[in-house]
Design goal:
Chain lengths: 489, 343
């Protein structure tokens, strides 16, 4: 098994290197962020469900076989807190004596009431949603907004399996057809739990919303996975009442006609949906994007302050997403973040109080790996893309360090789109090179204004940068940036 | 493809019928094919039909002996449009990408040697593969076959690893999926021998068994579509038509709501509402015999409503008191009452 991991790792690094336009020798970026392995208790199956940090600085992690552990980084010691939990894919640490855990059947408040360090009370916070026993009905979250509301997301079921003879919740046969389905409430929805304990349907149209996070601007972000109705994986900005495109969950929308949503014309569904803020091109950027977290370390994790990072299951790198408001909606770019020694299966992320980023990995039935890694910034700022914003004529790229020069030949741009349709995934459509008409570098070398021959809404604009170098000859780390252009300025 | 056709044309005509082999191979959940390995005669013309039973897309690529890893690495550079199959002489045959629920077949010819069949969808090829032996010689025993995918070896591993990093202590509790209950089931074992299933969706005891606890291996190993297995013999099952607790009148079946449970010395006490009445239920083993005792405590009864217990099946109500309605219906005379459940 160890051999396989190493193999995966080596191949992963190789694959990551190949994503650079010119597979240059080792770049400083390869050592700007370094992952170290956190040893698990011997005998623990390291399939991580969720991770978070306690106010006292300890890590709390859930594992596939029902364990909840605390980990003290200072002493590298593990403490078993609870057992018997079912597939907890979401966790929110309140204190060392109180953890919110989202398991298969419910959101549970797990408490240690007698102070012996072990959980002894498991109280239902909400179980006001359906479940059929279909394996794909995963639950994600919770995340809290500033007003103390909690948000969770409910995965649809998969026709890779049926439903159990006994289900919880009202069965609706109209939600049963399709590859991913929603035959009990409120599968395919994001739900809002108000402080009075009531669970409200909040937004719908999700397929596999793994998982939620608030960004620095207070936007509720949810990643969703390529599959039926998702030509590629996406990141949504979730707003109340909106429909995000996967039709099965429509059967639980108030006032929706008593019909199988799959009978609606695609054009109708398309007109109803809110588009993604970021599409992650399938295969080379993301196959299964996971948890979004914000770098609030104030520079302890490097130059990307307040930016959102997203985990990725199939690749040994993380993703950064850069969002902006254009025409009243959010859209933006995704850029890989290379981490030396990172494994795959990066499903869960949490920042420690010391500014290191912890990653919980899993591979349950899909691509990935197992265990926990801690990513540290070495203190070296690599030359990298810091920001990407849309202008009226193209894009403005900012950099972490001054560029020596920005010849336009080193900016290769193309555009394409993925189809919104019932089929599983999508090929790229209308993939076309875009002419770079000019690149203007600011006097300080930190900003390149790229003007393009055309800007066409509804396309992903993919930038591949060549051998740009900094003032002291340092090479550029991330050379791939994909901007989802829903609207032009 | 042309090469394959050419080979076929050169092959002796008489041998075709005898050495043709058609096999169905399934892509199944957990990044694997259902066949751990394949054996065919050298020189035969093989047709593999890939059926995708998984919930993600796969392909099937047959690679030259010893070439699997190289092909898998080559495939990382290939786009989806080309089905993640590199144009390489190391590839003997390949299917297109097969989406869930679909199937696709390939036909190719093999000479003596150990080929591989592998899914080259990005990342899959390191995990999802198997050896294709074109040989008439006997194969090594499956458990000792070095060419199997690690995931298959793991499955064959005779030595069972402990489930956790700690020895399971009893009483023990798992939230898991078991037959004969809702997906919100809870299973508890007092001692690894006497066990029960209590259903949090219905707030009731569903069944009890003896002779073991649960085997979670398939539930854990699969994506979750397999049940935890009940280990032992079920000696008691609820009467599914009769919810045992009645409120106000013997006929009124209350609305239930699960509130949670508390562990004391690892033994759970379940909390739930029957209408507006909060009930706590603790189950304990009957010492020295097969069976258990259900102890109920009414901790909140705002309207002081009467509570009845419908003891369907075999059971004995404690304290033994009046049976006002006959046929196993008891009126709870105090805020605590209990019921013994025996085979």
């Amino acid at each position: 098994m160890k051999k396989i991991l190493i193999l995966l790792l080596l191949t992963g690094l190789k694959a990551a290197a190949q994503h650079h336009h010119h597979a240059a020798a080792v770049t400083p970026g390869d050592t700007a962020w370094v992952a170290e392995n956190i040893p698990l208790p011997p005998g623990l199956k390291g399939e991580v469900g969720a991770i978070d940090f306690l106010p006292d600085g300890r890590l709390v992690a859930t594992f596939h076989r029902g364990e909840i552990y605390f980990y003290q980084p200072k002493t590298a010691r593990w403490y078993l807190f609870a057992e018997g939990i079912h597939d907890a894919l979401g966790i929110k640490a309140i204190s060392a004596k109180e953890i919110l855990v989202l398991q298969r059947a419910e959101l549970t408040r797990v408490r240690d009431t007698d102070g012996d360090g072990k959980a002894d009370d498991f109280a239902v916070v909400t179980d006001d949603f359906g479940m059929t026993g279909n394996y794909h009905e995963f639950n994600f979250g919770p995340v809290a907004d500033a007003k103390g509301n909690l948000y969770i997301a409910l995965n649809t079921a998969s026709n890779g399996a049926g439903i159990r003879p006994e289900v919880r919740g009202t069965y609706n046969p109209l939600g049963r057809p399709g590859r991913m389905y929603s035959c009990v409430p409120y599968r395919g929805w994001v739900m809002k739990l108000t402080p009075d304990g009531k669970l409200h349907p909040y937004a719908l149209g999700f397929r596999s919303p793994n998982t939620l996070g608030f960004d620095a601007a207070g936007r509720l972000l949810v990643c969703d996975n390529q599959g039926d109705w998702l030509g590629t994986s996406k990141l949504y900005v979730v707003k109340e009442g909106r429909f995000y495109g996967h039709p099965a969950s429509l059967v639980w929308k108030e006032g929706f006609p008593k019909t199988d949503p799959l009978t609606l014309p695609v054009a109708t569904l398309d007109s109803m949906r809110t588009r993604e803020a970021v599409a992650f091109p399938h295969g080379y950027v993301a196959n299964s994007p996971a948890q979004p977290v914000v770098d609030r370390t104030g520079g302890k994790f490097g130059p990307f302050r307040n930016q959102t990072l997203v985990g990725e299951m199939d690749h040994p790198f993380l993703l950064r997403v850069l969002l902006e408001e254009v025409g009243g909606e959010t859209q933006g770019a995704c850029i890989p973040l290379y981490v030396h020694g990172l494994r795959r299966g990066n499903n869960r992320l949490a920042f420690a109080p010391d500014g290191s980023l912890w990653v919980g990995q899993t591979d349950r039935g899909w691509v990935g790996s197992e265990g926990i890694q801690r990513i540290r910034w070495t203190g070296k700022t690599p030359l990298d893309i810091a920001g990407m914003t849309l202008t009226s004529k193209g894009f403005s790229l900012t950099f972490t360090r001054p560029l020596k020069s920005a010849p336009k030949e080193l900016f290769a741009v193309k555009r394409f789109y993925y189809e919104y349709h019932r089929e599983y995934g999508s090929k790229k459509f209308d993939e076309t090179p875009v002419t770079v008409t000019g690149v203007t570098l600011s006097p300080d070398g930190l900003r390149a204004e790229v003007t393009l021959g055309e800007l066409k809404p509804g396309y992903i604009y993919e930038f591949r940068l060549g051998d740009l170098v900094g003032k002291v000859g340092e090479p550029l780390l991330s050379r791939l940036a994909c901007y989802t252009l829903n609207k032009v300025r | 493809m042309y090469r394959t056709l050419l080979l076929l044309c050169l092959g002796p005509l008489w041998a075709w019928g005898q050495s043709d082999t058609t096999l169905v191979i399934k892509a199944i959940a957990g990044m694997q094919y259902d066949l751990p390995r394949i054996q065919v005669k050298p020189g035969s013309r093989v047709t593999l039909i890939l059926e995708n039973y998984d919930d993600m897309a796969h392909n099937l690529v047959v690679t030259r002996p010893g070439a699997r890893l190289t092909v898998v690495e080559q495939a990382l550079k290939v786009t989806a449009e080309k089905n993640y199959v590199p144009e390489s002489p190391l590839v003997v045959a390949s299917t297109k990408i097969v989406i869930p629920g679909a199937s696709e077949q390939v036909t190719f010819r093999v000479e003596e040697g150990t080929y591989s069949y592998v899914c080259t969808y990005p990342g899959h090829g390191f995990i999802m593969y198997g050896p294709l032996y074109a040989t008439s010689k006997p194969l090594p025993p499956l458990a000792k076959d070095p060419n199997l995918a690690p995931i298959v070896k793991e499955k064959l591993g005779a030595k069972k690893e402990p489930a956790h990093a700690f020895a399971l202590e009893y009483p023990a509790l798992y939230r898991t999926w078991v037959p004969g209950a809702s997906p919100a089931a809870i299973v508890v074992s007092f001692d690894g021998n006497s066990s029960y299933c209590w259903d949090a969706a219905q707030c009731r005891l569903r069944y009890a068994w003896t002779g073991g606890f649960v085997d979670n291996e398939e539930q854990w190993y699969s994506k979750g579509d397999k049940y935890s297995k009940i280990v032992g013999e079920t000696y008691w099952k609820e009467d599914s038509l009769n919810y045992p607790l009645r409120v106000g009148s013997p006929d009124h079946i209350p609305q239930v709501r699960f509130l949670g449970y508390k562990l004391k010395d690892r033994l759970p006490t379940f909390r739930y509402l029957i209408d507006d009445i909060e009930v706590h239920e603790t189950l304990t083993a009957l010492p020295g015999e097969i069976g258990l005792v259900r102890r109920f405590a009414v901790v909140r009864n705002p309207s002081s409503r009467k509570i009845y217990f419908h003891a369907s099946g075999k059971g004995s109500f404690v304290p033994t008191g009046a049976d006002p309605a006959g046929s196993g219906l008891f009126l709870a005379q105090s805020t605590t009452f209990s019921l013994a459940v025996r085979p």
